[in-house]
Amino acid sequence: MQLFIDFLPILFFFGAYFYEDIYFATAVLMVVMPVVLMIQWRITGKLNKIYLASTALILVLGGATLAFRNPLFLYWKPTVLNWAIALVFLGSQFVGDKPIVKRMMENAVELTAGQWRRLNTIWVIFFMVVGGINIFVAYNFSEPTWVKFKLFGMLGMTLVFVVIQTIWLSMIMNKTKTADQDPES
């Protein structure tokens, strides 16, 4: 159910875009995202910080898109959000007692401090690259291509990233498990 709720804004945007145009889709997104944010808050009792930031960005950059009739503001939203997340992940390595990725995953995975830093850095690189690719597509391809990339390309990159990360974590955990079972190591 939560996954469906998370994808509602994307589905509404995509449908509105192909129904009318980028401006109509932006207006729809500006209405749907705060509604979904409130639904999430009612269900969980918490505000998802990334979704809250994304909603704030869509209200500001979507508003600029509509006010100036220029979709470039909207095109920048995924880049700004991804780069901001990258900066937060990077900063977490220097502020606080543990990187964000460890706070998110420490109940599921056991890693050394160096492995947590490496994984956190990999997330930083991922968010920087996704933001960079988004703006590259926005400036070098047609609007319909960017809309499709926003839905399918970014989702695909995220899925590939998660699979690669899972394989890497499995290799580390298997290596650690083998070392724990081998009395000579």
How many domains make up the coordinates? 2
What proportion of the residues is helical, as a percent range?
over 70%
Total number of strands: 0
SS content category:
mainly alpha
Strand proportion: under 5%
Average pLDDT level: 92
Largest sheet: none
Uncertain segments of ≥5 residues (pLDDT<50)? none
- How many distinct helices? 7
Secondary-structure element order, N to C: HHHHHHH
Q: What features would you describe in this structure?
A:
The chain is an all-alpha fold and 185 residues long. The protein has two domains: 1-70; 71-185, no CATH class. It contains seven helices and no strands. It has helices at 2-19, 22-44, 49-68, 72-92, 100-105, 113-140, 143-181. Helix 3 packs antiparallel against helix 4. The protein starts with a helix and ends with a helix. The mean pLDDT is 92.
Please specify the SSE layout and strand pairing.
Layout: H1 2-19, H2 22-44, H3 49-68, H4 72-92, H5 100-105, H6 113-140, H7 143-181
Helix pairs in contact: 1-2, 2-3, 3-4, 4-6, 6-7
